[in-house]
Specification:
By secondary structure, this protein is mostly helical. It has four helices and no strands. It is rod-shaped, with a radius of gyration of 40 Å.
């Protein structure tokens, strides 16, 4: 430290300014580095979490719009068209019931009876759904 005491005052000030500039440069570099790291983390967070969440919300909005459009279409259908559709559904129901009755007269085995029972249950559920829609 004797060399420091032997320096002139101007040289000491210049040396101090250079040391402060180096320290300031290190601190600035570290600040930029940390800021970039935070920015990259936020980009990953946005891409992996926020974007999919926004897409899900958009898809839900589209589903609601589609449901609204279908219900509007159903409500705007002419009563005569609805009546024709109802008659066609009734005719199809009667034809299915008639075919099942005919098949039961052929003396089916137990497995076939089980499948026919399942078909009848399914037909009843379809009928209930159609009644709700029509």
């Amino acid at each position: 430290m004797k060399w420091m005491r032997n320096l002139r005052t101007a040289s000491k000030i210049v040396l101090l300014v250079v040391a402060m500039l180096l320290l300031l440069g290190v601190i600035a570099f570290q600040g930029i580095y940390v800021s970039n790291k935070i920015n990259n983390g936020l980009e990953v967070l946005y891409k992996e979490y926020a974007t999919p969440a926004m897409l899900i919300l958009e898809a839900e909005g589209c589903a609601i719009d589609t449901r609204r459009a279908v219900l509007t279409l159903i409500l705007r259908t002419q009563p005569a068209g609805m009546e024709a559709a109802r008659r066609e559904v009734e005719a199809n129901r009667k034809e299915i019931a008639h075919l099942i009755e005919q098949y039961l007269t052929t003396n089916p085995n137990e497995k076939e009876k089980e499948y026919l029972g399942k078909i009848q249950n399914l037909e009843q559920r379809v009928t209930k759904t159609q009644d709700e829609v029509i």
